[in-house]
Amino acid sequence: MSIFKSLPAAPVAAKKPVTDTRHGVTRTDDYAWLRADNWQAMFKDPTILDPQIRTHLEAENTYMKAAMADTEALQKTLFAEMRGRIKEDDSSIPMKDGPFAYGSLFVTGGEQPRYFRTPRDGGDRVVLLDGDKEAEGKAYFRLAGIDHSTDHARGIWGYDDKGSEYYTLRIRDLSTGEDLDDVIENTGGGGAWAPDGKSFFYTVLDENHRPSKIFHHIVGEPQANDRLVYEEEDPGFFMGVGASALDDFIYIDIHDHETSEYRLLSTDDLMAAPKLVSERETGLEYSMTEGGDVFYILTNADGAKDFKIVQAPASAPARENWTDVVPHTSGRLIISHMAYARHLVWLERENGLPQIKIRDRQTAEEHAIAFDEEAFSLGLQGAAEYDTDIIRFSYSSMTTPSQLYDYNMATRERTLLKTQEVPSGHNPDDYVTRRVFASASDGAQVPVTLLYRKDTPLDGTAPCLLYGYGAYGISIPASFNTNCLSLADRGFVYAIAHVRGGKDKGFQWYEDGKMEKKTNTFTDFIAAADYLNQEKFTSYANIVAEGGSAGGMLMGAIANLAPEKFKGIIAAVPFVDVLNTMLDDTLPLTPPEWPEWGNPIEDIQAYQRMAAYSPYENVGEKPYPAILALSGLTDPRVTYWEPTKWVARLREMTTGSEPILLKTNMDAGHGGASGRFQRLEEIAFEYAFAIKVAGKI
Q1: What is the pLDDT of residues 143-181, one digit of tens each?
Q2: Where is each Peptidase S9A N-terminal domain found (predicted)?
Q3: CB of 619 within 8 A of CB of 646?
Q4: Angle at 561 between CA 560 and CA 562, to 5 degrees
Q5: Phi, psi at residue 40, to the nearest 5°?
Q6: Residue 339 host element (H or E)
Q7: Strands 211-218, 199-205: parallel, antiparallel or unpaired by DSSP?
């Protein structure tokens, strides 16, 4: 019997069949009309959305509110709990850079960050950018931060006020706090300063929301006069621009999900054409950091599947000059690297756990920064300065609040700078965190991180929120999360399934969850649910699954494959219309995503593969559990029509009695609400759904 009582009639989307024939196969999509024909323009001006589509989305929101009306008090309670765990007037520890130290802070009640600086060795804070002030009067506002020039005189800051991720750049005089007249539109957010602070480089997004061009802007000139530095003609590649630590080079980083290419512009001649480092070669990845007279390059060249670090002369960094510094070791994935005057630093993961490694550049001696908990997370912040022995890193676990350290790479001393405060109180001894392993159907051991209170009965009666992602090689860290304590304190087991498609167990773990092996991601997640049921951490009747974006695809897939094993499903901005999206090469991410999923336009096998697992294509006549889908109207990554169409088809096909709900944020994009407390309200809503579905309201 459904927990949702006395619901009004659910919205019924009109059917307007559209047929599409590819590779000799004709498909009919009854809900294709929900894709706005003017989506490019609508992302910049949401008021021009087709009224019929808007009316349908608003009807869905009305239905959703009715279904969740009895959780409003619970939502407020959850929000108060989550807010009570946040130190509202929190401040970062400033990072030293030249004569200043730079940081960010929040004020009590503030939604947006404020960026500040102090004299290097301490003193009064000067606020450089007040996010709350800039956000006044805007329904949505997200900052891209502020980047100061080498001479510390000016800062580039960017903002998105629609959720569409088209950022506007402004230039601020850091001594007066006033913005110059320069306005740079339609950028990817941020820029890379030239050393003299008189110009900078930035990316422009085209009408299909792709970063296709790099421009050079001279401060004080109109954007129309900016010089085109490089244009990427392949729509399948992302592009970014950055500056080296010593300000010797401007990096142009061109990549998709499996191939890299760098071009370098010497800051000795800003008007020169950027020079190619190593020509793109399908499957070859590399990233660069400057180390004085050499570059250190992280790469998978020569079969280094889990990556190695090589070096090359700064004057001749082409691939033929690469020599190994940190050789490849199978099963030890090198995630990122940094170089300083006397040390090389990298973050690696082995056996599912991270550690930071340090190498003395003179002696080649190496040592590690490691911890002993069963599951934990490390973050490597490094340093803003090149000539330093001090780097910064963070540590946390599911039970241990985040700790920030300065670490002396020469003396190996660590200094605790800050421990995350939980104002409402937190006793780590009240909770248990564990790393267990579920056996997949092919025998693979899937790590599952658990958090629960010590007094939670492990007899199958506990509700469980099981989270998963599994794409792009992204690993989900076992880090401290104050929000999920609200579930643990209500008797939930909070679980993260580290499924294939991420790099939690190395690069092979990623490859075993993509392309023709994509379904491993889905069956791994189901295996995690099976394990938790079998070992009585919970039971099928008590599991609520959650995932977002590509993890939302996972939610759609498990809903089709094993609906009986989940009490409810939360799918945030879910990538559920996989086949149609990958067939539409005008959409922002479609060509860049083909290396991850395949190109169904050109490849019949990719077409057949996606058709077999795409959640939207495979909705069937079966009893689905209660489902909550969330989307953002101006989302350029997972467009609003994907979850909207999916919900319409689910509601049409389900033979069960549980409701299918859609919540569309009409003022936001992929990341949801932009303010820190607005975001907590969204999480409180999702958790209220989980608690209601689990019968714990």
Answers
A1: 999 999 999 999 999 999 998 899 999 999 999 999 999
A2: 12-419
A3: yes
A4: 105
A5: -60, -50
A6: strand 332-339
A7: antiparallel
CB 340 within 8 A of CB 390: no
Q: Is the dihedral of CA 45, 46, 47, 48 positive or negative?
A: positive
∠ CA 113-115-119, rounded to 5°:
150
Percentage helix, strand, coil, to 5, in the chain?
A: 25, 35, 40
Instruction: Find the radius of gyration of the CA atoms of the chain.
Output: 25
3-state class (DSSP) for residue 131? helix
| Closest of 662, 665, 687 to residue 675, by C-alpha | 665
CA dist 341 and 670 (Å) reads 39
Domain ranges of the chain: 18-83+425-693
β-strands 167-173, 142-148: how paired? unpaired
Question: DSSP for 249-273?
Answer: EEEEEEE-SS-EEEEEEETT-TTSP
Distance of alpha carbon 694 from alpha carbon 697, whole angstroms: 8
Catalytic residues: 549, 635, 670
Which CATH class for the 18-83+425-693 domain? Answer: alpha beta
In angstroms, the CA 75 to CA 78 distance is: 5
Identify the residue whose tokens are 């104050």. Answer: 482
Kind of pairing, strands 626-632 and 568-572? Answer: parallel
Helix (H, G, I), strand (E, B) or coil at 314: coil
Residue 1: pLDDT over 70: no
Q: Are 315 and 327 in contact (CB under 8 A)?
A: no
Q: Tokens standing for 488? A: 């643990």
